[in-house]
């Protein structure tokens, strides 16, 4: 029954919508339609109780927060409500005590906004109280889906073609195609949801009017009432059918099924730091250098351009404030404004000046991705929380589907990362090769997958290399089955290339001063056959390693297992933390350095962040988010022994966390490469940069 049928005759009939500069479809400036005109609500005395009334009137389960001072931009028209005093239980905002509708001393700089939960009220039914102004109403329905037309298409993943259905009043209804446009299809395909067959169709009462650049159906307007026949069928006789083209990462190919690991050729845009497919910090390539986008004016429309460009659907959320980690390098774009129809974010208008922008304001996105069903073929069993457990996979054996375990031989961080991503649980925090403390599901002990090797970018464990039906697991399953623990956040170490470039120099040091370094294998192998009064030529430099992630970087080994090195009088918390190598231009290694992380600590931190880790007195080791660890050029082993290297041009490379011992949100920025010229007397380091992709060698 309609809420409005229960209201007294003197209660003003209003309609609500969320407008303005949105970063999610379920947030925005609160706008009220009354007396034939849209207006706003003042933030004076507004509370979460009032936000609750707004959100529930719009069909959302609850309010998450509210924002004063026109956060979503200044509205227009009357300010219909001021000094609202809601209890949170009112059926409509019009029932909350206020100064009276239209009575206000506010300006539009005080327009209030709300953020609603993205969950809809089960059985919510859209009620239209203003039949004469229907074209200005936003669409509010419980859910939307694409339903396969034929039952034989039901098992196709993802569902790309079928009827468009909306859930209103707890019932799925088709939409009449009388006024359907390609712009409507563009929005539906961008949302990219799927559903299943149902027989007797019923039709929704309204048509749909999208402009095509909306990220969600709820941002489209209602069209005119669509039912023209008394028996509830479509006046045009046909329901809306859409046919969508999935991004290539999700499109099956005849030869190999789904692509194993998505690699875009020569991309101008990429996502970094996200836990799952389709989310991350937005980075753009300009003049051969990757940089970020400042979040000023960042909204759903611009985020959707990024998502579509990368082969995903529309944006679910436009994130600001470095929410998915801070980038490095320049801020390439600021105050981005897109129409929503651009092929690339680089085509949108933007301000080239980024004055006042820092990486604390890096923009990010969460995109709609097709429902691939990957989560249903994998589970964690026996853990204390849903974020940990023995890995169990669903495979076909002798014509039936059975659950079983994964052999832990070679099981490591990359494999665990794929499991956590597939389950939507974020990043891996640990990979376990023994799981005797997690009993797992009864009847799922048998090993059904072995030889798993992942690159870390796969969407499903089944996409990784593995033995297939030819299982080989000498240890067997049981206590040696693979396990993982997952976390919503992860660290992200990035080495500062400018510091390497600026601090490099060459030193000739006598062997008798290098005894400790020799014992720790920090010199080349020929150093063992030379007299104590000979010299070693050392390429020295400083390393400054930032943690730009969302959680602290901690060594994998517990404090009890750290190794004491008597020579240097310190503990090694990781066997290998960084690798230093010198390569010829054809890729042949000509010299190498080896460095264990004898001390992981906070050397310096960004303003407002306190140091947490210090090595002195057997203290905790790690690198706090927003801090950096500096290995100065004048400490032992902070070098490459180039005694035996001939003069010439070389490539110098540093790799942090090279064995992936500690999970990170992004390993692609763990490498620094520099050009290096050595003439036998002096050394020059230049063109240092992070990552592999913009090397010009």
From TrEMBL:
It comes from the Eukaryota. Keywords: Basement membrane, Calcium, Chromatin regulator, Chromosome, Copper, Disulfide bond, Endoplasmic reticulum, Extracellular matrix, Glycoprotein, LTQ, Metal-binding, Nucleus, Oxidoreductase, Repeat, Repressor, Secreted, Signal, TPQ, Transcription, Transcription regulation. One of its GO terms (cellular component) is extracellular space. Residues 16-117, 146-245, 269-368, 378-487 form the SRCR domain. It catalyses: L-lysyl-[protein] + O2 + H2O = (S)-2-amino-6-oxohexanoyl-[protein] + H2O2 + NH4(+). Disulfide bonds join 42-106, 55-116, 86-96, 210-220, 338-348, 454-464. Its cofactor is Cu cation. GO terms for biological process: chromatin organization; collagen fibril organization. The lysine tyrosylquinone cross-link (LTQ) is generated by condensation of the epsilon-amino group of a lysine with a topaquinone produced by oxidation of tyrosine. It holds the Pfam family SRCR. Its EC number is 1.4.3.13. GO terms for molecular function: copper ion binding; protein-lysine 6-oxidase activity. It is found in: Chromosome; Endoplasmic reticulum; Nucleus; Secreted, Extracellular space, Extracellular matrix, Basement membrane. InterPro entries: LOX-like_protein, Lysyl_oxidase, Lysyl_oxidase_CS, SRCR, SRCR-like_dom_sf. PANTHER family: LYSYL OXIDASE HOMOLOG 2 (PTHR45817:SF1), LYSYL OXIDASE-LIKE-RELATED (PTHR45817). Mediates the post-translational oxidative deamination of lysine residues on target proteins leading to the formation of deaminated lysine (allysine). Belongs to the lysyl oxidase family. This is Lysyl oxidase homolog. It comes from Sphaeramia orbicularis. The gene is loxl2b.
């Amino acid at each position: 029954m309609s809420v409005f049928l229960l209201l007294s005759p003197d209660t003003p009939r209003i309609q609500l919508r969320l407008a303005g500069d949105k970063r999610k479809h379920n947030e925005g400036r609160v706008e009220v339609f009354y007396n034939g005109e849209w207006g706003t609500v003042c933030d004076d005395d507004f509370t979460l109780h009032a936000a609750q009334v707004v959100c529930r009137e719009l069909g959302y389960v609850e309010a998450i927060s509210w924002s004063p001072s026109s956060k979503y931009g200044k509205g227009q028209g009357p300010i219909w409500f001021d000094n609202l005093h809601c209890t949170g239980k009112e059926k409509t905002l019009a029932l909350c005590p206020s100064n009276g509708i239209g009575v206000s001393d506010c300006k539009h700089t005080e327009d209030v906004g709300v953020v609603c939960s993205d969950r809809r009220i089960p059985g919510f039914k859209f009620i239209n109280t203003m039949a004469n102004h229907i074209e200005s109403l936003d669409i509010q329905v419980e859910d939307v889906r694409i339903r396969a037309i034929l039952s034989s298409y039901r098992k196709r993943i993802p569902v790309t073609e079928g009827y468009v259905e909306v859930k209103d009043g707890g019932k799925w209804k088709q939409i009449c195609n009388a006024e359907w446009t390609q712009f409507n299809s563009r929005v539906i395909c961008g949302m990219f949801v799927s559903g299943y067959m149902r027989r007797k169709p019923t039709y929704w009462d309204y048509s749909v009017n999208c402009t095509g650049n909306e990220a969600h159906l709820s941002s489209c307007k209602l069209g005119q009432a669509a039912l023209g026949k008394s028996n509830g069928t479509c006046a045009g006789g046909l329901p809306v059918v859409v046919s969508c083209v999935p991004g290539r990462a999700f499109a099956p190919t005849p030869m190999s099924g789904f692509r194993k690991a998505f690699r875009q050729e020569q991309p101008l845009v990429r996502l970094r730091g996200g836990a799952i497919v389709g989310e991350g910090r937005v980075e753009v390539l300009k003049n051969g250098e990757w940089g970020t986008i400042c979040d000023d004016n960042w909204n759903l429309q611009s985020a959707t351009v990024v998502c579509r460009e990368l082969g995903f659907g529309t944006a679910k959320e436009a994130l600001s404030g470095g929410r998915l980690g801070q980038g490095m390098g320049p801020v390439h774009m600021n105050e981005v404004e897109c129409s929503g129809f651009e092929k690339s974010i680089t085509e949108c208008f933007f301000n080239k000046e980024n004055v006042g922008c820092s990486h604390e304001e890096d923009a990010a996105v969460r995109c709609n991705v097709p429902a691939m069903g990957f989560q249903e073929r994998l589970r964690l069993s026996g853990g204390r929380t849903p974020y940990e457990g023995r890995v169990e996979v669903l495979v076909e054996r002798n014509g039936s589907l059975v659950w079983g375990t994964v052999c832990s031989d070679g099981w490591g961080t990359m494999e665990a990362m794929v499991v956590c991503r597939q389950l939507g649980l974020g990043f891996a925090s640990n990979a376990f090769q023994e799981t005797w403390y997690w009993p797992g599901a009864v009847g799922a002990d048998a090993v059904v997958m072995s030889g798993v090797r992942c690159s870390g970018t796969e969407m499903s464990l089944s996409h990784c290399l593995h033995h297939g039906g030819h299982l080989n697991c000498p240890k067997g399953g049981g206590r040696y089955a693979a396990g993982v623990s997952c976390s919503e956040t992860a660290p992200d170490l990035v080495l500062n290339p400018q510091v390497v470039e600026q601090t490099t120099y060459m030193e000739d040091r006598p062997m008798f001063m290098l005894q400790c370094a020799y014992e720790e294998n920090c010199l080349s192998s020929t150093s063992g056959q030379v007299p104590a009064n000979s010299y070693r030529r050392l390429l020295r430099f400083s390393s400054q390693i930032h943690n730009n992630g969302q959680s602290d970087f901690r060594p994998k080994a517990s404090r009890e297992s750290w190794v004491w090195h008597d020579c240097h009088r310190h503990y090694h918390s990781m066997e290998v933390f960084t690798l230093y190598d010198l390569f010829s231009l054809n890729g042949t290694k000509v010299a190498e350095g080896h460095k264990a992380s004898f001390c992981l600590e906070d050397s310096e931190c960004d303003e407002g962040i306190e140091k947490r880790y210090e090595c002195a007195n057997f203290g905790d080791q790690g690198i706090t988010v927003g801090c950096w660890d500096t290995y100065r050029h004048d400490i032992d082993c902070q070098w490459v022994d180039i005694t035996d290297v001939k003069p010439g041009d070389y490539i110098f490379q540093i790799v942090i966390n090279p064995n992936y011992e500690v999970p990170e949100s992004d390993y692609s920025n763990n490498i620094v490469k520099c050009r290096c010229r050595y003439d036998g007397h002096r050394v020059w380091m230049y063109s240092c940069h992070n990552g592999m992709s913009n090397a010009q060698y």
